[in-house]
Design brief:
The chain has helices at about 50-65, 85, 95-100, 145-160, and strands at about 5-10, 35, 40, 70-75, 105-115, 120-125, 130-140, 170-175, 185-190, 195, 205-210, 215-220, 225-230, 235-245, 250-255, 260-265, 270-275, 280-285, 290-295, 305-310, 315-320, 330, 335-345, 350-355, 360-365, 375, 385-390, 395-400, 405-410, 420, 425-430, 445-450. By secondary structure, it is mostly beta strands.
């Protein structure tokens, strides 16, 4: 596990032992909760000018928490707390009436210290109604780690208020087409830190994260020959893993054997095969006359879902990893051109794109046994390529509702649809980085203050 480049101190307080989940994140579709973030102050001195790095910390925390549309922040112009009180972080000395009068649900306050090459930020979260501190965190690192500190604190706020582990330190890999070629791109969860990772000047497809979230596997037709590549986040460079004998369609990483499940065009058939990371065929999984593509594994790796045209139209099927293709179970019987199924990390739902009666592609979810199908997008042009967040609470997808294909995010029930990319070119095939709980790494904890 890669270590954080900043240190995290956790201030354990008596109230933490009694803290309860304040918000059920799965029951917030039509409601957002008001938070307030007071201006942070230096530990010493009386300057009213806040350091730019601290302002960046606060902006990122707000951006992260606002993005999931469970919270909204009260504007500073509405604050009633006088300047003489704004430096106070001891809950016993805070006059919470200034915050209850503007209907604040939870309050964030903080202090900071700037040294020559480091900055220390101490951030506190309070329950305004009970007038108690919920949690506090202290971070110390270089200024270029401010965003990482902010993402870590936003994760802590989300966990403290909802009981859900935050995703604000995760990244999203996808395919972009800034010119005529398709390249591998990546951005932060909030759409920032957008970067192009490849310059193959070719057709690059099917990004797939490694289990530890530190590598991205993909295929590309370099010099018109298919090959398997991986991009290393640690090394910040691409590696060619293997030249492929056949063209591949789609990649799914096997969580059990660390193999790849992909479609190979061998002879007249397009069937699913297991490959190792050297590109060698391990076994053939399907044998139907129709095309079998777009595999996605169940969380335990014992099953996978895929698309098949074996009965005429493209429908969704599931299959045990140890069975042959004849044992596949069809789970959709409606729509046409169903595609890109994705199994939820919770194991309870499969998302896919399907063309309904309006002849536009939309995102649907269905139980693994084919029951309880729901449509999540409506009348918003074409919506494709669903990909689940690591916690199963959100779905990424591609939509051309703005004129070009952009990446969007929504809650698992289809609510809170939010655009993440806004460049003029197309974006598609998004995939979410697995969550790595960096805050649990002992080396990152420098103090435990009681």
């Amino acid at each position: 596990m890669k270590k954080m480049c900043f240190a995290l101190g956790i201030l354990f307080l008596p109230y933490l032992a009694k803290a309860q989940i304040l918000i059920n994140i799965n029951e917030t579709s039509n409601k957002t909760y008001p938070l307030a973030m007071a201006p942070f102050h230096a530990f010493t001195g009386s300057s009213r000018t806040i350091d730019p790095a601290v302002l960046a910390f606060q902006r990122t925390v707000k951006s992260d928490l606002a993005l999931i549309k469970v919270f909204h922040f009260i504007p500073e112009k509405a604050f009633l707390e006088p300047t003489s009180q704004s430096r106070v972080v001891d809950a016993r000395k805070i006059n919470f009436s200034f915050w209850t009068m503007i209907d604040t649900y939870a309050l964030i306050k903080g202090l900071y210290r700037k040294d020559e090459d480091t900055i220390t930020i101490e951030a506190h979260l309070y329950d305004v109604l009970t007038k108690k501190e919920i949690m506090a965190r202290r971070y110390k690192g270089a200024e270029n780690q401010i965003n990482n500190m902010a993402h870590a604190f936003a994760n802590s706020v989300l966990t403290a208020l909802t009981g859900q582990e935050g995703l604000f330190d995760t990244k999203i890999a996808f395919i972009c087409r800034p010119k005529t070629n398709k390249e591998l791109c990546m951005m932060h969860f909030n759409g920032e830190q957008y970067e192009t990772l490849t310059q193959h000047n070719s057709i690059t497809l099917s990004p797939q994260w490694s289990k530890d979230g530190q590598e991205i596997f993909y295929t590309s037709f370099v010099k018109n020959k298919p090959a398997l590549f991986k991009y290393s986040l640690v090394e910040k460079r691409n590696h060619k893993m293997a030249a492929l004998q056949y063209s591949t369609i789609g990649l799914a990483l096997d969580p059990i054997q660390n193999w790849l499940l992909t479609t190979l065009n061998i002879g007249k058939n397009h069937d699913l095969y297991f490959l190792n990371l050297q590109g060698n065929i391990i076994s053939r999984k399907t044998t139907s006359k129709g095309i079998d593509v777009s595999a996605s594994f169940s969380p335990d790796g014992k099953q996978f879902v895929f698309v098949s045209g074996r009965h005429g139209s493209e429908q969704i099927y599931t299959m045990d990893r140890n069975e042959k293709g004849s044992k596949a179970k069809r789970i959709t019987f409606k729509g046409k051109a169903n595609s890109s199924p994705a199994w939820s990390p919770k194991g309870d739902k499969i998302a896919f794109s399907g063309v309904d009666t309006d002849n536009e592609a939309d995102i649907f979810i269905v139980d693994p046994d084919g029951s309880n199908m729901e449509r999540l997008t409506y009348d918003t042009q074409s919506n494709e390529d669903p990909s689940w967040s690591p916690d199963g609470n959100f779905i990424l997808f591609t939509s051309d509702r703005s004129g070009t294909k952009q990446i969007y995010m929504m809650r698992a029930d289809g609510s809170k649809q939010t655009q993440l990319t806004d460049q003029k070119w197309d974006h598609f095939m998004p995939t979410w980085q697995p969550k790595i709980s960096l805050q649990k790494t002992p080396e990152n904890i420098i103090s435990m203050l009681h």
